[in-house]
Amino acid sequence: MERKVVFSGLQPTGNIHIGNYLGALRNWVLLQDDYDAIYCVVDLHAITVPYEPEDLRRDRVETAKLLLAIGIDPERSLLYYQSQVRQHVELAWLLATLTPLGVLNRMTQFKEKSDKAGRNLGLYAYPVLMAADIMVHKAHAVPVGEDQTQHLEVTRDLAEKFNNRFGEEFPVPEQITPKVGARVMSLQDPTSKMSKTDPDARSKVLLVDPPQVIRKKIRSAVTDSGHEIEYDREKKPGVSNLLEIMSQFTGRSIDDLVAEYHDTLYGHFKDAVADAVIEGLAPIRDAYTALADADVEALMLDGAKVARERAEDSMASVRAKMGF
Ligand code: AQP
Description:
The structure is a single chain. Helix 3 (about 55-70) crosses helix 14, helix 4 (about 85-95) packs across helix 8 (about 125-135) and helix 11 (about 235-250) crosses helix 13 (about 265-290). With about 325 residues, the protein is mainly alpha-helical. A three-stranded parallel beta sheet has the order 1-2-3. The protein folds into two domains: about 5-175 and about 290-320, Rossmann fold, CATH 3.40.50.620; about 200-290, Tyrosyl-Transfer RNA Synthetase, CATH 1.10.240. It has helices at about 20-30, 45, 55-70, 85-95, 100-105, 110-115, 120-125, 125-135, 150-165, 210-220, 235-250, 255-260, 265-290, 295-320, and strands at about 5-10, 35-40, 75-80, 140-145, 175. It has 14 helices and five strands. The site of adenosine-5'-tetraphosphate (AQP) has 18 residues, from helix 1.
C-alpha cells in the first residue's frame, strides 16, 4: 500500500530554538518511519521580512545541517531548498486566485510581523505560498507547532475549494501537533511564545547553544510568585513552561516531575531543567559540528532534483484541470 505523504517546512532564519524542535521538528523525525516524508528549508518564506543575502546563504546551509543533525535521514526523507523547486511558486500563484482577501486580513502572523517588518505583499501572501508548499506534494499530514494552526486552516480551505471548483486533486491535510510542547513560551516572558525573531537572546535556547549558555539562560528564566513547583499555565506560566520543556526532554510526565520537585527551590529545579536540556541537545550539537557545508549543499541539490520531478507530476494535472 502507498504510504501517506507528510510535509513540513522550516524557515532558514537562524536561531532555531527548542520551541521549533519540541513543537515541530521532533515530530518530523518520528514521522519518517510511517510516512513518505518530505521536508523543506523554506527560503522563499524567509525573505518576507528584512534580510541580508549573505545571511540567507549562511542560514540556509546551517538550517539544512541542523535538520540532518536532529535525525532527518536523506535515505528515508526528501530534503531540499524551496527556491530550487519552482513549482511551489507557480502553484502559489494559481491558489492566490482562489484566496479571498478577507481570509488573509485575518491572519495574526501578518498582523504581528508587519508591525515589525513592514507590510509587503509577500508577507501578506505567506499563507498562500505555505498552502502551495503542502499541496504541491499532495501531503496528507503536516507536523507544525500550534502557531501555524490558522495557516493550516487556509490550506485546508484551499484544497477543498480547488477540488470543488476543478475536480478532485488534493487531500485535505491534517495538522500534527504534540500534546505537550505545541507552544513553548519565551523564557523571559512566559506569556508570549518562544520566537526566533525575539531580540532578547535569553528568551530562547538554541539547538546549538553550548552547555554553559543553556544553563545560564534557564537559570535566568522568569518564574512566578510563590515557591512551589506546580503546573498551572494560567497562574504559573513560567514554571509550567519549564515543566513542559523538562517533560519533553526527559520523557517523564508532568505529574511525575511535579511530585519530585514540588518542594524544591526554584534554583534547584532550574538546574535540573538545564541538565535535561543539555543532555538532550548534546548529540544534536555533536552531529551538527561534524557536517561539512559542501556535502550538505550537494545533498540538497539531489533532494531538489527528486522534489522537482514529484512536484511537476502534480502541476501537470493541476494545469490541465485549470484549463492550461
Ligand atoms: N514557541 C514555539 N513552540 C512550539 N512550536 C513552535 N514553532 C515556532 N515557534 C514555536 C514551530 O516551529 C516550526 C518552524 O517554524 P518557522 O521556521 O516557520 O518559523 P516561525 O513559526 O516563524 O518560528 P518562530 O520561532 O516563531 O519565528 P518568528 O519569530 O519569526 O515568529 C513551525 O512548525 C512552528 O509552528
